[in-house]
From TrEMBL:
It catalyses: ATP-dependent cleavage of peptide bonds with broad specificity. The active site is at T7. This is ATP-dependent protease subunit HslV. It comes from Geobacillus subterraneus. It holds the Pfam family Proteasome. One of its GO terms (biological process) is proteolysis involved in protein catabolic process. The gene is hslV.
Length: 180
């Protein structure tokens, strides 16, 4: 039996603003599109934190709930909540089997959180995950470098996902963008 997967998330901090975009495609295995309008980017902690997932849908929902609990436990301290989630995720026998990744951000931080215990803050203020992540990241970097001041963080996030959707069969054009 196959699993349900959700794919591309892109996040950027640019000119004092932050934005995260995600496509809406959920696939079953490698051959069937089961849903085109999934919402993979969510606002957490009273709307002050954005989180996006790529990977198995059920696993991602489990991680969203756990991460939101960590945010509550540490009063919205994003780095601390991310590190504590990564530690628990890596060390727990059952959680280690979860197949998903998270990008989380607030006004001050942008972090990748994985089940291997990684919590990574990018040097260039951009992250992308999922099967279309490399395409979105390359597009975002080019947009930021060559259109810099003329585009907002939201513009870059949306355009990066649109470009990824044109290339990646696991990414569609139903794009949700949230900004802080």
């Amino acid at each position: 039996m196959g699993t349900f997967h959700a794919t591309t998330i892109f996040a950027i901090r640019h000119n004092g603003a932050a934005a995260m975009a995600g496509d809406g495609q959920v696939t079953f295995g490698n051959a069937v599109v089961m849903k085109q309008t999934a919402k993979k980017v969510r606002r957490l902690f009273q709307g002050n934190v954005l989180a996006g997932f790529a990977g198995s849908v059920a696993d991602a929902f489990t991680l969203f709930e756990m991460f939101e609990g960590k945010l509550e436990q540490f009063n919205g301290n994003l780095p601390r909540a991310a590190v504590e989630l990564a530690k628990e995720w890596r060390s727990d026998k059952v959680l280690r089997r979860l197949e998903a990744m998270l990008i989380v951000m607030d006004k001050d931080h942008l972090l990748l959180v994985s089940g291997t215990g990684e919590v990574i803050e990018p040097d260039d203020g951009m992250l992308a995950i999922g099967s279309g992540g490399h395409y979105a990241l390359a597009a975002g970097r080019a947009l930021k470098k060559y259109a810099g001041g003329s585009l907002t963080a939201k513009d870059i996030a949306k355009a990066a996902l649109e470009i990824a959707a044109d290339i990646c069969v696991y990414t569609n054009g139903h794009i949700i963008v949230e900004e802080l």
